Amino acid sequence: AIVVVATDENNGDVSRTINNPLISPEENRRRARMHRLYHPFCRGGEMHVPNVYRVMSNGDDDDDDDIEKGGDCGGGKEAGADVMMPEHPASMGLKHLMTILSIMDTYCSEDMDEEEWNSIFVCNQNADELLLDGEEGLVLPEDEDVAILRIGMRNRCHLAERVLSSLDVEITRIWALTDRATYLETASIHFHPADVLDMDDPINEKVHDKMYGAKSYNRLANMEERISHARIASLSHHRRGNLQKAAELVVGDIVSSAPSLGGAEEYPKLSLALSLCVLEALLALENYVPKNSNDESRKRPPEEDGRGWFQKHMAHMFHAGSCAEDDDDSPVRTLLGALAHPVHVAASIWRERSLCSDDRVRDAAVVELAAYDRVRRLDGTWLLHPTFEWMDVEHIANVGMGILASVTSNSFL
């Protein structure tokens, strides 16, 4: 078997696969399409979008025949179109996991007494029929599977709580710590000035639209795992109605992984601990549909008042309305500006790394940049500015000094 390059007939993108001389060329091309279809960052045919987000808009059936209906990855149809797109196993698994955790968290409380708990699993022969007043259905013998469920799920709310508590610590502390140590020691993903692509060369013009390198797969798969964990933690807090904890995840993630530009960390040589894909997962609500687009109408904030749930919650903490956020000296505006600053800094560093000739460095950076474009229009206006056109080093330093001066001023204190 040898490594070959297969060209997608629909859009000309390149997909790497293994060519087996013992099978037909058609089968090799089919395997190439399947390899791309189930790639962690090729959702519904759209490059650089995590596959862990749901694709299908109607129904939850995960039929293998849908793979042929939806076409191969890159057919030019967006998720949500009339064509039924296949579901990635990761998105289906996340959906079922969230359902199970919600059931545990809601119904498996230790406060429920034995009689009330056992009544949930009573099988009534007339359960689907309308019973008359005073009439009781025939109670059937307990099925073995029901018995296993009744015994095994008892007090399982503690399991959901432990999962959520563990994820909270990992997202706000552990991930940044381990990533910094790993990226410092992993020379294969270090970026050097000599590795910069010549973007004026027509050959490199569409390098960001090509399929990812084979050596990047493991890292991209690990990134999608992080996205899944962030989704589990954030959505669990939202389902509980605890926006305070969901907001703490966003703040903790940014603060713990913010890049240091004072010489302590060598950027853009080193990769960043601040992942914009993880930030997107923390800010996204349950029905979020990530899409890349150059359409100006889709770059506007989706909320009617231009504020997402995180921005609204920050204003609520300071008892401030939307008008107060327009005040340059308001605490909520200063806080949001302080949180947005490291995100913009990280985006500028990811942009530099996206120009690397080594796909082990470039692929992750391109994925993060695509997430930056989506996250800026995901949660209101606090991340909309600045743009890359005026995100140079001098401007970034001036913004940072302005935020520091505002925080230390008497009016803020």
Walkthrough of the structure:
With 413 residues, the protein is mainly α. The chain has helices at 25-37, 66-70, 89-107, 114-119, 144-152, 157-185, 217-240, 243-257, 276-283, 309-317, 322-325, 331-353, 359-376, 393-407, and strands at residues 2-7, 14-19, 42-43, 46-47. Helix 7 runs antiparallel to helix 8 (243-257), helix 9 packs parallel to helix 13 and helix 10 (309-317) runs antiparallel to helix 12.
The total of beta strands comes to 4
User: In which order are the strands of the major sheet placed?
Assistant: 1-2
Radius of gyration: 25 Å
Low-confidence spans: pLDDT under 50, at least 5 residues? 1-17, 56-83, 125-135, 295-306
Characterize the largest beta sheet: strand count, sense, and whether it forms a barrel: 2 strands, antiparallel
**Which descriptor suits the 3D outline?**
globular
Average per-residue pLDDT, rounded, comes to: 75
H-E order: EEHEEHHHHHHHHHHHHH
Instruction: State the assembly state of the protein chains.
Output: single chain
The number of helical elements comes to: 14
Structural class: mainly alpha
Distance between the termini: 67 Å
Our estimate of the beta-strand percent is under 5%
Q: Into which percent range does the helicity of residues fall? A: 40-55%
